[in-house]
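Below is a filled-in request sheet from our internal design queue. Each sheet records the structural input a requester submitted and the sequence that came back. We keep these sheets so that new team members can see what a complete request looks like end to end.

REQUESTER: design group, bay 2
PRIORITY: normal
MODE: inverse folding
CHAIN LENGTH: 140
BACKBONE (tokenized):
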């Protein structure tokens, strides 16, 4: 994903992690729209949250990232990026504080994870089906 294709702005980017079977999301900052100090000479930085922690490093253009959308309220998103960087947030947790939670917080101020919500709904559905099947066998 060459950042030369993007003008200055804040973007949500995504890449699939085949070894984990899930998508990983991050915020791409082209042109220091977040206003961080000591930006350096790089054109773009990627704000990522992984089990290894939070990073805001120069963008790896060969990382398999694909554009998802541009953030429209840059001022609010920049303020939230500054907050995340200043506080470093809570430790990474797969179901309650992952990369999707961080990105949705930067975008909207509300930490959410659609992948976790979908997985939980699938698990509830599976348990429900098993319980109904057991109840049917007992009734027969």
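RETURNED SEQUENCE:
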């Amino acid at each position: 994903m060459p950042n030369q294709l993007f003008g200055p702005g804040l973007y949500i980017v995504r890449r699939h992690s085949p070894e984990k079977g899930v998508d990983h999301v991050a915020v791409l900052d082209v042109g220091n729209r977040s206003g961080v100090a000591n930006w350096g000479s790089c054109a773009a930085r990627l704000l990522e949250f992984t089990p290894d922690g939070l990073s805001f490093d120069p963008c790896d253009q060969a990382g398999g990232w694909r554009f998802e959308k541009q953030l429209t309220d840059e001022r609010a998103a920049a303020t939230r990026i500054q907050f995340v960087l200043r506080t470093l947030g809570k430790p990474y947790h797969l179901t309650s504080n992952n990369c999707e939670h961080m990105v949705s917080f930067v975008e909207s101020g509300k930490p959410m994870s659609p992948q976790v919500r979908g997985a939980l709904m699938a698990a509830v559905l599976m348990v429900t089906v098993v319980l109904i099947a057991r109840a049917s066998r007992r009734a027969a």
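SHEET NOTES:
- The helical segments are 74-87, 99-108, 114-139.
- Strands lie at 9-17, 22-30, 44-50, 53-58, 66-70.
FILED BY: M.R.
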